[in-house]
Sequence to fold (229 residues):
Amino acid sequence: MPVTVPTSVAHGEWAPGLTYTLDAKVAGGSGEDHDVSALGEADLAALLTGLREVSVRQAETLGVPRAAPRPLEALRQSAERAGRHLAEADEFDPARPERLTGAAAAQLGVQPGAAPVLVHHGLTGEHLVVAVDGRVRGVLGWGDAVLGDPAEDIAALALCVGSPAAVRAATLAATAPGPVCAACGWPAATPSSTWPTPWPAAPPHRRAHPCPRCAPGCAAPGNRSCWSA
Fold:
């Protein structure tokens, strides 16, 4: 994993069937108390990428259970009913949710034949260890991990760090298999910490956007800089 996860240094049983573990402390504070920075979003992207790269067989060998994806159509209908009730009380404008039709929900759902991936299934603020500079230093609370729909983790991040940050992290994770900065692993030709500011209409090799992690280190000899890839 590209971020720190709990490492047990001792374990045992308090009583039959009641186990305990003593873990090495991860430096940082709770994600409920610290905001995630642009570089922290890259850390989350690396986390999502790392989860996706764990093989299903390896996870099942460790005893990770499978979880069926949520039925989005049932959730959509439930939200639609709630929206109507709130609209009757003049507390909600139902126009925007009505754009999410049944056909749209089907497109957003897990497609037939899609392979499950390792999902943390509990990426709340209390499980994120965030430094004062906004970098994500660790992820705790792996007891509910499952093999399932990666959208669960993205949705959880949207709740705890905000929708834009969660979408940016998910997008970075999706582009991670492409060219990356040799110095830090940030995806090449991806926007810097000012993202989503539009880039100039110029060829990729002329986009002078240094790597937000290690600029100007990316320009060091032998390194593929994110703006020159």
